[in-house]
């Protein structure tokens, strides 16, 4: 069932979301300062490419001060807009019964988009 959900996700827009994340990841990694943020957008792109069956897990060793500072920077630089767009798409998809699984995947992406540092995709 996860494979079918992921294929439908990709056909109806998931591939475009993943490509956008991958392009922004490459552009962010061009600068030395942007590399940590580029790695986080790469993480979002991987989750956007194959969301069904993937889980977000918290890294216990990464809950230090640096992770909190980077999440605050991420929030103000663009994370809030990514978060709000996924929340909006999640609400739109949850209006219909068939769209609920896809809306839940957008809510999962929104959670990672808000605080990507200190979390990993499994």
TrEMBL record:
The chain crosses the membrane at residues 7-35, 72-100. The keyword Magnesium does not apply. The keyword Transmembrane helix applies. InterPro entries: Inner_membrane_protein, UCP028777, YccF. Keywords: Membrane, Transmembrane, Transmembrane helix. Residues 4-53, 69-118 form the Inner membrane component domain. GO terms for cellular component: plasma membrane. NCBIfam families: PRK11770.1-2. This is Inner membrane component domain-containing protein. It comes from Odoribacter laneus YIT 12061.
């Amino acid at each position: 069932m996860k494979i079918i959900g992921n294929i439908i996700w990709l056909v109806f827009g998931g591939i475009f979301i993943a490509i956008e994340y991958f392009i922004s990841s490459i552009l962010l990694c061009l600068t030395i300062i942007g590399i940590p943020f580029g790695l986080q957008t790469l993480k979002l792109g991987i989750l956007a490419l194959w969301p069904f069956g993937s889980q977000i897990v918290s890294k216990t060793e990464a809950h230090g001060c640096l992770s909190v500072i980077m999440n605050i920077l991420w929030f103000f630089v663009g994370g809030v807009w990514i978060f709000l767009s996924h929340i909006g798409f999640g609400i739109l998809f949850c209006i219909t019964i068939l769209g609920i699984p896809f809306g839940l995947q957008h809510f999962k992406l929104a959670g990672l988009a808000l605080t990507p540092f200190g979390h990993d995709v499994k």
